[in-house]
Design brief:
24 strands, Nuclear Transport Factor 2, Chain: A, four-stranded mixed beta sheet
Length: 364
């Protein structure tokens, strides 16, 4: 099964809320010197929403709508600070600690199994994605990436002390990705071709590329159509049955699909007026013997139910979602608070960094 999972001391909170608009403010200082850190990046993870501190280390960032994401403060040579819920509490003063740079140190386990070129190719395939969008991406500072393979665990690990810079010419974004974790678990030793699971965790900031003659909107909407974010957005809005998504149980032994399932029989929804999110509670009776909640999601398009049942499962635009939590929440854009609480494979699971768009993206 190939699965994909695409993180102080507090003073008074400095958050100003005007209706749906929120202004995040603070000051960034060096922990040791207590001097202001000028031009530090301050952004909402996974979005195009960001700013930089001024000469006094101060920042002010206005957000029109709340997004399920974290506030990141970063500067070259310092450890990034991540604030999990910036809408509730932000330190008035944010201290940055100097980073202990490893200067390219690589962990080596025994005799090398793969060449550096082979490891980098495997990393780019799984980090950027083996899709049209993924293959169009270019890593601008590939030399900052360090890779190590452990033959005992059969895992490939990726590290980077500075953000990875990516140019996505297919979707029209420049991405700055701070890699926290990259783990590629292989099914067989001495083979980078067969993948079991991939775990990628990081912080990202998006910038729009100049459009020139390319219209990126159509490409972005095409990828968004099959994304887990769109599925969760429709689920939170109680619109699954009105969309081109259908939920099925998949009988692994018989390799057949059941009739479509009603979302209301699987998920209980509660709207949270305070932050415009939706809490989703999974039906515990639907869990398997291991306590995992499993569903198959298919983008049916114009296919009839009979055609879907008679079509080989692997040829359909299908995904499998395996939940390891009882509840989670979804914001208005379809972003969830799930990090490692879910495994996704199939068409949704193929989407990697090259197929991601800002968390505040919505089709035009």
């Amino acid at each position: 099964m190939k699965s994909f999972f695409i993180h102080l001391s507090l003073l008074l909170s400095s958050i100003t809320i005007l209706s749906a608009q929120t202004t995040l403010q603070g000051t960034v200082l060096d922990t040791k010197t207590k001097e202001p850190v000028a031009y530090a990046s301050v952004y909402l993870d996974g979005t195009t929403i960001g700013t930089a501190t001024d000469l006094d280390g101060r920042f002010s960032l206005t957000v029109k709508n709340r997004i399920h994401t974290r506030l990141v403060v970063s500067f070259m040579g310092y450890e990034s600070v991540v604030i999990s819920n910036p809408y509730e509490s932000i330190p008035e003063i944010i201290y940055l600690d100097e980073k202990d740079i490893n200067l390219g140190e690589v962990i080596v386990w025994g005799k090398p199994t793969f060449t550096e070129k082979q490891k980098m190719e495997a990393f780019k395939d799984q980090f950027l994605g083996m899709t049209e969008a993924g293959y169009s991406c270019k890593i601008l500072n590939e030399d900052v990436i360090r890779l190590s393979y452990n033959p005992e665990t059969n895992k490939l690990y990726g590290y980077a002390d500075v953000p990875i810079e990516i140019e996505n010419k297919y979707l029209g974004y420049k991405i700055r990705f701070e890699l926290i974790e990259f783990t590629l678990h292989l099914k067989r030793k001495k083979s980078l071709a067969l993948i079991d699971t991939v775990s990628i965790i990081g912080l990202s900031f998006f910038e729009d590329l100049k459009k020139n003659e390319i219209n990126y909107a159509e490409r972005r909407e095409k990828i968004y159509k099959f994304s887990s974010r769109r599925f969760f957005k429709l689920l939170a809005e109680r619109k699954i049955e009105l969309s081109d998504f259908r939920i099925y149980n998949y009988n692994v032994k018989a390799k057949v699909l059941t009739h479509p399932l009603q979302a209301r029989n699987l998920f209980a929804l509660k709207k949270n007026s305070s932050d415009s999110t939706t809490t989703i509670v999974l039906n515990s009776k639907k869990k398997d013997d291991f306590g995992i909640f499993n569903i198959s999601v298919i983008n049916v398009g114009k296919l009839s139910e009979r055609v879907i049942r008679d079509t080989p499962y692997k040829t359909i635009a299908s995904s499998k979602l395996h939940f390891f939590v009882d509840t989670f929440s979804v914001d208005k854009y379809g972003n969830t608070n799930l990090i490692k609480g879910i495994f996704i494979n199939g068409i949704m699971g193929k989407q990697r960094v090259g197929d991601t768009m800002p968390t505040d993206y919505l089709p035009q």
